[in-house]
Amino acid sequence: GANVTLRCQDEEPANATVSWRLEERGGSRWLAGGNALQLPHLRPEDSGRYSCFSGGRPLRALRLLVEEPPETPRVSCYRRSHDKDVLCEWPQRAKPSPGTRAMLWV
Q1: Whole-angstrom Cα distance, residue 94 to residue 72?
Q2: How many angstroms separate the most distant Cα atoms in the chain?
Q3: Considering the entire predicted model, what is its pTM?
Q4: What distance in Å separates the CA atoms of residue 67 and residue 14, rounded to the nearest whole number?
Q5: Which candidate, 26, 87, 90, 16, places its Cα nearest to that of 58?
Q6: How many domains, the chain?
Q7: Are 28 and 59 members of one domain?
Q8: For 13-71, what is each residue's pLDDT tens digit?
């Protein structure tokens, strides 16, 4: 996946330690400190609410949604004979990502 950097504030707070917390479906956990949080090789399970704190005080909260990129659907249509209906198939090797769409114009 892609790499993302989340910034707590435009400028790092003076004489303050910034810490990050990730809230996800299963609970929350503390992450690395610093004004900028580096998130390399993102996967869908990295989705959640990222909050930064300084001195125990919340400064900013960001919601990150990571999804698989939509793939190009491979649709094939055919007719067994001229008096039969057209049949279209969309074979899938895996469950399509939520953003995948196909439209059939007849």
Answers
A1: 13
A2: 79
A3: 0.64
A4: 36
A5: 16
A6: 2
A7: yes
A8: 677 889 999 998 778 899 988 899 999 999 988 999 999 998 889 999 999 999 877 77
